[in-house]
Amino acid sequence: MAFLFWIAIGLSACHSSSDPTLYEAEKVMKSYPDSALVLLEAIRNPEKMPAGDYATWCLLVTQARDKNYVEHTSDSLIGVAVRYFEKRKDPHRKAQVYYCQGRVLSDLDLEGEALEAYLKAKEQAVQTIDYDLRARINNHLGGLYWKNMNYRESLVSYKEAHQAYACISDTAGMVNTLCNVGKCLQGMDRLDSASFYYGKALKLADEGDIQAQKGTVLTSLGNINMDRGRYTTALEYYRGALQNADNPKFLDIEYYNLGDIYHALGQTDSALFYLGKISGSEDLFTRCSANRLLYQLAKESGVPDSAFAYNETYLQLRDSIEHLYRPHELERMKALYNKERMQNRHDRQMQEVEIRQLVWVVLFLASLVVGTFIYSYFNKKLSLLKLRNQEAMKMLNENRRQLSVKDKELSENNARLEIVQQSLCQIRKEKDRLVKERDEQVRILEEDNWKQQAEYEQQLEEIETRSKRIVEEKEKILHEKEVLVHQKDLLLGQQDSRLSSMSKDEKLYKEQIGILTSEQQQTKQEMKTLRTEIDTLRLGSETQLQQELESKKDYSSLCKMYEAWQKELISQNSCLSCIRDRLVLDIWKERDWEVFMENFNQVYPGFLTHLTGSFNLTDREIRIVCLTKLGLKTTKVSTVFNLGEDMIRRIKSDIRKRCFPTSTAHSLDQIIKRWY
After folding, report:
1. What percent of the chain shows pLDDT beyond 70?
2. Spatial CA neighbour of 320 closest among 281, 279, 275, 285
3. Residues 546, 603: one domain?
């Protein structure tokens, strides 16, 4: 039997997929189903492939179309895969083909056959560790039971799906299945339990930031409060659900819920407003419920003609919906499937019994034939075998004892491991909280630093402007005073020459000499006063310049502190620090730029937004400015763009001339280093 088993394994291995395209398509199926579908449909003449590859192709094409929401119109492809893999001992492939067969049959409105396919898939999936596939199978089973009002079976399936999603920590799947469990409990009038599960789903959606499913949870909570008569609370939930609804189908449901709650609150106009939006809805159930509620509103408003029309439409839609429910047929199909499964199991057991009996007969006859020849040999070694068996039993007992001890140690280690895992989860939560607080503090410090830097730069420019203006005014005043002193010296010389020429007439000019002498003394006094003022102005100018130099030193120290802080942030970012420290860089592709810009925005938040808002730059110029802000030299920048260094320098010069025309004394690297 073991030999036959290994032969079967070898044969199945020989039929495994050998086409690399099929391998690649299955590899990317979960993350990129659209790419997988393109790869599979690009294969020409797949029917000419080996049987195993063709069956795999049929399975993967059906799976890719289902993941891309392409409606199935035929079961021929999946039928090929089912017929092939049914004969193989591969539970995972069987579960996949049966699940895909169920999806196809559901699209073809063959719910009984779909139920049978899902049950077969579930039976095979429990033999695998693919929890995602288990969850999807049970989810669709629960939906099929729910559609046909079998709430108890639906509840069991949804709970099993939730357990499978929990094993792989799929938050979105857990939220969805918790909502489905609450829906089943609500259908069974167990409103308290339903509220509990809806509350867990809402909390999990908030923790995982899953906005897409939050609207469904809020709608369900609103329905429960509506059933309990808490209309105001229900209205708040419905409004919150409407804010989170983006799918047109969900919008129709939210419009109907708002119309229903406004009708319960007696606000007829508001109810008619929302019901009018879904009177032409594509969903049969929503349109039926809307016409029923419009009939009640028209009847209460005393409009019999409209009430009659709405009621007729409601009855027609209700008849159409009733044809969709086939719970008895589903139960019959499930019973037939269970009966067939039990019969097949019984037949397999009978075949195994017959094979075992035949093997035992053959072995017995062979033992009779061979026993006569080896009886004497075994009789001699019987005593030796007994001794060996006794020793083996002793060793076996000792191994059992050691095994029990190891089991106890293992259970204790498992308990300690659970405690360590719990503490690790708490540490991770605390770490996430501290990281968020640190990021917030860094963002606040950066904003303050940018504001202070802009203020310091503006103050420095104003100080430099005032200093230049004061120095120019002082130099002008000094020049004018020196001209006046020179003119007075010339005047005194002329007066001295006149006095010498007029010495003969001393008597006539004594009074003039006295007057000139007094004027000379007065002029000397004015010269002293002017020199004192000049010294005072020079001293004040030197004091002011000293203060300005000190403020400039303070600003420089702040700039150095900011640069050191930026370097620390860059060193904490592994991507940017690697780019900055590497001596030689490669040519970057678009994916490399996306990773770089994402990390750059973490270290320099707001810089890119301020840059694009302030100047009209191309994508290449923006990237060059960002690399310059990081501190990369022209050589590295030219390597990244695969351009010459002269070309990069010309681009930088053009950016400086267009964006910073007044800063002619500085390069673009110096400007960007301190800008924003």
Report:
1. 80
2. 285
3. no
**538 within a domain of the structure (yes/no):** yes
165 burial class (0-12, 13-18, 19+ CB within 10 angstroms)?
Answer: buried
Instruction: Specify if 583 maps to a domain.
Output: yes
Q: Which of 47, 35, 37, 129 is nearest to 80 (CA)?
A: 47
357-366: list long-range contacts, CB under 8 Å, 24+ apart: 359/1
Kindly state whether residues 625 and 653 are assigned to the same domain. Answer: yes
pLDDT reported for residue 629: 87
Q: Tell me the helix, strand and coil percentages in the chain, rounded to 5.
A: 85, 0, 15
What residue type is assigned to position 376 of the chain? S
Whether 503 is covered by a domain: the verdict is yes
- Residue pair 181/197 in contact by the 8 Å Cβ criterion: yes
* CA-closest candidate to residue 467, choices 410, 550, 407, 354: 550
What tokens were used for 248?
Answer: 């047109």
504 DSSP 8-state letter: G
Domain extent for 12: 1-128
What pLDDT does residue 257 have? Answer: 75
Compute the residue count for the chain: 676
The domain spanning residue 192 has which CATH number?
A: 1.25.40.10
CA atoms within 13 A on the CB side of 219: 23
CA–CA gap between residue 85 and residue 54 (Å, rounded): 11
Would the pTM count as exceeding 0.90? no
The CA-atom distances, in angstroms, between 363 and each of 349, 354, 357, 377, 669 are: 21, 14, 10, 19, 91
- The answer on pLDDT for 17 being more than 60 is no
Q: What is the pLDDT of residues 525-564, one digit of tens each?
A: 877 777 777 677 667 656 766 665 565 565 556 656 666 6
